Task: structure prediction
Amino acid sequence: MWKGRDVISIRDFKKEDIEHVLKTAERLERELKDEGALKYAGGKILATLFFEPSTRTRLSFESAMHRLGGSVIGFSEASSTSVKKGESLRDTIKTVEQYSDVIVIRHPEEGAARLAAEVADIPVINAGDGSNQHPTQTLLDLYTIKRTFGRIDGLKIGLLGDLKYGRTVHSLSEALTHYDVELYLISPELLRMPKHIVEELRDKGVKIYETSDLESVIPELDVLYATRIQKERFPDEQEYLKVKGSYVITLDLLKNAKESLKIMHPLPRVDEIHPSVDASKHAIYFRQVFSGVPVRMALLGLTLGVVE
Ligand code: NCD
Result:
């Protein structure tokens, strides 16, 4: 049952739920191409509450809602709202739900989206809570992989960079436990994937290799998913400086890669991928950006109960 459902953590999704979102996104992408604007969400209002910076996540949710024929209200900076006057998240949510049919929230605190979902009677979608989860990014990542390779099973996938604080790789690796993949966790020692996640992946039978040496594993990979070092999550700037610029993907580095290797990145990038890589056959991170629209259309349509 999708209508009224919250989207908080990828762990709440069974494989069939994930597959249903991907299938629905594919259908909506096709309909959009054939028919132009759709009307499924006519009269419905999405509220986007962004307590942290965002470009793609917010704009693609807004674009998705407009493409479904609905409308959007919201804020992209909490400093312009009553939060600045000391209003609690709880009261903000109780207020916003009087004005809207679905809420998308991004917040620096882990668990904020879960709290919002407990307070609200309308569906709440997590657009990132601290370094915890980013389930909608994961669904668009899986969509991109599936559209590119025609499958997810059988791939060797490298997750690179900030595996400690990066919420995108936390959600993505957990989702990949539903598929038959091998995972290469590539990070500086300081930024390794949290132990509890590695254990969970192993328990679920995923083959995992942990390393800090990107060059040595590059020839193995089908997908290299790069991430930004999450500077804003470090308790101590000195620690950040130790790992800043740890990996830079260059054309030279890619000489030993498979012809078919695809590079992904949730973006924004800082210096992880040299811009000269953008024009290569390996780069699919802007195609990945596009996937945000159909996937978020599917999530909005399903949780609003206007598509099946
Ligand atoms: C990511 C995020 O916000 O977690 N961005 C995104 O949503 N595409 C990654 C990041 O900020 O590095």
About this structure: The chain has ten helices and nine strands. The two ends are 9 Å apart (CA to CA).
